[in-house]
Design goal:
By secondary structure, this protein is an alpha+beta fold. The protein is 38% helix and 19% strand. The protein binds adenosine-5'-diphosphate (ADP) and magnesium ion.
Length: 631
Amino acid sequence: MTTPQSKEALAKETLGFQAEVRELLKLMIHSLYSHREIFLRELISNASDANDKLRFEALSRPELMAGDAELAVWIEANAAAGTLTIRDNGIGMSREEAVSNLGTIARSGTAEFFKKLSGDQQKDSQLIGQFGVGFYSGFIVADRVTVETRRAGLPANEGVRWESAADGDFTVENIDLEQRGTKIVLHLKDDAKEFVDSWRLRSLVRRYSDHIAFPVRMPKEGEASLAYEAVNRGTALWARAKSDIKDDEYREFFEYLSHGAGEPLAWSHNRVEGKRDYTSLLYIPSAAPFDLWQRDGARGLKLYVRRVFIMDDAEQFLPLYLRFVKGVVDSADLPLNVSRELLQADSEVEAMRGALTRRVLEMLGKLAKDEPEKYRAFWREFGAVLKEGLAEDHGNQEKLLPLLRFASTNGEGDAEGVSLADYVARMQTGQDKIYYVVGESLAAARSHPAIEGLRARNIEVLLLGRRIDAWVMDHLQAFEGKKLKDASRGDLELGELASAADKEKTEAQLSESAALLKRVKESLGERVSEVRVSSRLKDSAAVLVAAEHDMSAPLRRALAAAGQEAPAGKPVLELNVDHHVVKYLEQRSQDAEFGDLALVLYEQAMLAEGEQLPDPGAFVQRLNKLWMRLQ
Ligand code: ADP
Ligand code: MG
């Protein structure tokens, strides 16, 4: 399978790092002083990945394992030389692979990554792990890194030595290597010599490797000869009995799995036996990854089949709206040669996805109930993602509804802490709807004219201010038999809340204002479908509302912003006939400026609702004309 190589191809070359890598290396070298030990987690993780990959490839090509079938990782410090060595007997790299894997960043989103860097040591070191640039983290502690590697299946003379002092270049050359796999030698910086300390090293190695599926071997204490002992269990954590696993071990495993994304908020470890046989270990992280909102951001679970690692980011096991979940699924039924395409079409996978989805929703339900503080933290980070489920997963709406949290007129500030159950418990006598309003921001929702009347009646209104809200709220019908009602659309449906006096007043206003309404409608023409007396307003003079079955204005704007054609339903203009501005307008019914006044009223309503004016310049002129009259 290998072609004899020419002299030139074997020669030593010096190559430049990709620009992004250079930038990253600068970061590693100059600005990470705390949490430096993460380099060890990353290099152990790479060694374990390399063993995983070999085990997988060897399924179809057993000869790759030849003569060296016990996969492991070795870690060794040499105090005299000031070096730390991490070695595996996994898949290894060819010369070409070494050049591209250790000289470039293959992933997309590099720009995003650099944008997210904050200068905060803790946060940035977490980012580095998430971004999957673990190899370069060796340069946090080393001023020179030497890699010797041989791809499984290649002959001994196709070993590769890669070396760099992170000064912009690296060298590669072919060397003879007896063994396959990869050895990474870190030439420690003067201020990083602590990592040769055997006690410190052992405790770190244990922390980062106790749950990986391979033995990690270190030289036996106090023995001069080359005797090694395993310092970890070498069993995959999820394969152990739940009762046997400590909380700290679950946390450490999460740290390993997530490349240091902090503490998990919750986890759920389950074994399913019977018709289907699989184990899952699912985590809710406490912090969102930098690429949560990127289309091609990494998501999904680590997939194993009978302990054999198959792939990272298997996104078929959870719906998109649960993309924040991290974890492992290990199936006993799937074929070892399963591919992403096969996963997509597989009905078993579909069934597992359903079960895992329910498991996550139940875990969140439990968190909300038992640890509301943590649930609040969850909601802050991931609430907007979870909400997508309302639109995407109608089947689980019953489970999702109790998980929602809102800002409301009942409280100040932006905190989203009100559940639908809280709302229902506080409903007024006679109230049978759950009112909400969506604005361009939370502040805009809070001062939305359409909810003035509700507030005046002491009726709580849920406030929403995110782009996605207009879309997801449209998918909500009812909670515990109470209809969810958009306060800016159709009739308010106050039902029993509107007193007899209210009704009488409206009727009277209707007949009194009939002429004014007609005149305003004539002035505004096709801009509105109707002009009517409002029961929604208190302090504002006018409000625009959508017809009950028309698309809401925020949704139309969101679609337009996404470049989608949205049907332009005509809004209804509602007037507050008690308002002095409307009264003034009425007095001017016969004047030439009536048209301008009516238009300004309409334009105000557009602005208050979050709409852009089609001709802001003309609006300003109209306003100034009115202003001049005040003199
Ligand atoms: P990631 O592990 O997320 O891919 P890294 O920066 O940690 O990113 O590693 C980059 C790449 O270098 C890996 O994807 C792998 O192809 C290669 N690599 C790193 N370490 C090893 C190793 N010990 N054995 C084989 N390949 C390795
Ligand atoms: Mg890595």
